[in-house]
UniProtKB/TrEMBL annotation:
Alphabetical list of SUPFAM superfamilies matching this protein: Cyclin-like
Cyclin-like domain mapped to chain residues: 47-131, 144-228
Natural source organism: Linnemannia elongata AG-77
Domain of life of the source: Eukaryota
UniProt record, GO biological process: cell division; mitotic cell cycle phase transition
PANTHER family given in the database record: CYCLINS (PTHR10177)
Keyword terms of this UniProt record: Cell cycle, Cell division, Cyclin
Name of the protein in its database record: Uncharacterized protein
InterPro entries the UniProt entry points to: Cyclin (IPR039361), Cyclin-like_dom (IPR013763), Cyclin-like_sf (IPR036915), Cyclin_A/B-like (IPR046965), Cyclin_C-dom (IPR004367), Cyclin_N (IPR006671), Cyclins_cyclin-box (IPR048258)
Length: 268
C-alpha cells in the first residue's frame, strides 16, 4: 500500500522502512569473495535485466527489488560466471512475484535468456535463492521514499520523472550497493533539482527525505560522473528513458553537455 493513502500513519511507516532498509542492505564488498565475477559482469547483467524488465513492462519497484535480491544473494553465495545470468533471472522472477499482479512465465524468462537454463533449472535456483535470503523478501526500495520527498514540490512531474531515471542509474554502479534506499531517493531527487535548476534543498526537503544536503554530495557527484558517459555506464537505461513517456529524460541530461554536468559537482 502507498503510505500516502494512510497519512495518519506515514511517520510510523517510514520509520519502519528506514529500519528495514538497513536490515536488507547487501554487503558492498561481496565481490572480493567472488572468484570468477567482477563489477564489470554485474553491470552487463543489469543491462540485460533492464531490457527484460522493459520487455514485460514491469514496475520500477520490481527492478530495484530484483537488484537487491541479486546483491544480497551474491553477498552470501559465491557462484561461477556461467550462473550469473541464472541468478539475475531468478532475482527478477522473485521480485516480480513480490511486486507485480502477474509475474512473467518461467518459460518466457528461459527463452529470453537464450534457453541457457531450462524452466526446471530456474525453479531449482529459485528455491536456492529463497533459502539464501532466508525467505526475507520485503526490502524497501527507493520509490516510496521518492514519492515522499516529491510532496515538497507538489509532485512536480518534471522533477520526479527525471529523478526516477537518476535513481535507476544508481543501480549500475557498485558504489551505491551499501547506500540505503532512502538516501538513493534523496540523491536522485536532489540531482534532478540541480539538473533542472529548480531551486534549493530546503528545510522541507530535509524533513521529508531525512537527509541534509551535505550528506548527499558524494552520491550526487558519483551520479553526475555516470551521466557523462551513458554508453559506458548505463546504455540500456539511457535507451529506455529517451522516450516521450519518460519526458526524454536521458536525452535532456545529455543535451546539457559535459561542462554543465561537471559544474554541478559539489566540492570536497
Amino acid at each position: 500500500m502507498d503510505p500516502s493513502f494512510v497519512s495518519e500513519y506515514q511517520a510510523e511507516i517510514f520509520a519502519y522502512k528506514r529500519e528495514m532498509e538497513i536490515k536488507h542492505l547487501p554487503d558492498p564488498t561481496y565481490m572480493d569473495r567472488q572468484v570468477e565475477l567482477s563489477w564489470h559482469y554485474r553491470v552487463r547483467l543489469i543491462e540485460w535485466l533492464v531490457e527484460v524488465h522493459d520487455r514485460f513492462d514491469l514496475l520500477q519497484e520490481t527492478m530495484h527489488l530484483c537488484i537487491n535480491y541479486l546483491d544480497r544473494f551474491l553477498s552470501k553465495i559465491s557462484i561461477p560466471i556461467d550462473q550469473l545470468q541464472l541468478a539475475g533471472t531468478v532475482a527478477l522472477l522473485l521480485a516480480s512475484k513480490y511486486e507485480e499482479i502477474q509475474s512473467p512465465a518461467i518459460a518466457e524468462l528461459s527463452f529470453l535468456g537464450g534457453d541457457a537454463y531450462p524452466p526446471s533449472r530456474i525453479r531449482q535456483a529459485e528455491i536456492g535463492m529463497l533459502r539464501a535470503l532466508n525467505y526475507d523478501m520485503g526490502a524497501p526500495g527507493p520509490m516510496s521514499f521518492l514519492r515522499r520527498i516529491s510532496r515538497v514540490d507538489d509532485f512536480d512531474i518534471e522533477t520526479r520523472t527525471l529523478a526516477k531515471y537518476l535513481v535507476d542509474v544508481t543501480l549500475c554502479d557498485h558504489r551505491f550497493i551499501g547506500v540505503p534506499s532512502s538516501m538513493v531517493a534523496a540523491v536522485g531527487y536532489r540531482a534532478s533539482m540541480l539538473l533542472l535548476d529548480s531551486g534549493e534543498w530546503t528545510a522541507q526537503h530535509e524533513h521529508y527525505s531525512g537527509y541534509a544536503e551535505y550528506t548527499l554530495s558524494a552520491g550526487i557527484n558519483v551520479l553526475l560522473t555516470m551521466l557523462e558517459q551513458p554508453s559506458q555506464t548505463h546504455q540500456a537505461l539511457f535507451n529506455k528513458y529517451k522516450h516521450e513517456q519518460f519526458m526524454e529524460s536521458s536525452t535532456y541530461v545529455q543535451s546539457l553537455g559535459l561542462a554543465k554536468l561537471r559544474s554541478l559537482h559539489y566540492s570536497s
